[in-house]
Structure formats: C-alpha cells, structure tokens
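Sanity check

After download, print the first record. It should look like this:
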Amino acid sequence: MKHHFGGAAAVAVAVVLLLSSCGGQSPRPGSSDSESWGTAPQQPPRTSNTPSSSPPVPSPSKPQPSETFTPEQLEAANTVIEYFRISDEVSSSLDADPQPLKDITTGQTQKMDMNELNDYRQHGQIQTGTTIVRITGAADAKEENNLTVITVQTCTDTSKADVVDSKTGKSIFETGKRSMYLAWNIDVIKTGEGWKIGDATNDIDLGCHP
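Expected structure tokens:
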C-alpha cells in the first residue's frame, strides 16, 4: 500500500464528502451529493456572522447526512476522513503524539503508518500543506471474523501538500516524481473500541473529479 501522499501531507485537512466519481469512475451504491469542508467530522458546527435575514448556512465542519448512506456507512466514511486528518496532524510535527494514529488504525495499516512516521522523524522530515479527501462511495456492510467491515472508496488530492526537511524547508521530492492523486479502497472495521482503519489499497489517479 502506498501512503496517501507518496509521501504525505498537512497541518489541516480540507474534507469533501462528495460522493461522485473519482477519476471518471462511477459512484458505488450508497453515494451522496452532500459536501463539507472542515478539520474533523466530530466537531460542532461553527457559528456564522450572516445576518438573521439571510438563508441559513450549512455547517462546514461535518459531512451532511446522506439520503443513500446507511448510518454505518456514514460512520465509516467519517472514520476515513478523521484518519487522514489525524495522519496529517501527527506528521506535521516531529514532536506530535502518534497515539491517536495508532488508536484509529489496526493491523498492517497501523504497522505501515508507524514505520513511515518513524522514518520521517529519523530523517527530520515533516508534512506541510493541505490534503483534500473526497469520499466517492461505500460498499454494503459485511461480516469478517465476527466484525462489521465497510469498504469506503476515497480519492485523495495532495497537490497542495508536501514533505519537507524540517530545518531547511526543502521538499524531499523531485519535481514531478510523486503521485498527487490516489484512488483508495479502505476497509473500515467496527471493533469494540470503535471504528478503525484496516486494510487499504490504492492506485494512482489522474485527479479527484467532482
């Protein structure tokens, strides 16, 4: 599995829950037309300075409920969004606590993420910029080893992000040598401790299209 950056990304995460095609693929059953931007789906709505006479402004901090996503599919999608936010936040500082990333992952994904994070830190490298996460679909829930598993389709855009040397600020990548867009299939597992990111695969994409 390649990491979400071919390197990684970011201090903040720009989140899009826009269940449409990614790289020209058709949406899977359980897609939605809702859109949201924010740093974490669990945060309360932000207040607005819009005058009372103006139409209400939708909350930008969490995905809007989907008419076609089941509650479990929406929880799984939110977990994917939170995973990328945590991953980016932990990687944006050499001193950030990695525990939240361990808590939201399991199995090989947890092992690979921890190894990558340790490798970055040993070389004094941090992430900068913003990752855009677009949820493109979710499969029906299935049972594996007596646990509920939902595969979430996602496209990530790290064109505004980078991995740099913490001392010089210089990118570790050669120009044009990294994959900015990745199409993912991510298994999200409902455990006794909550939803966790399990196995994931990705392929290089041409872009995350609305």
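If your output differs, re-run the checksum step. Summary of this record's structure: Residues 6-54, 56-65 have pLDDT under 50 and may be disordered.
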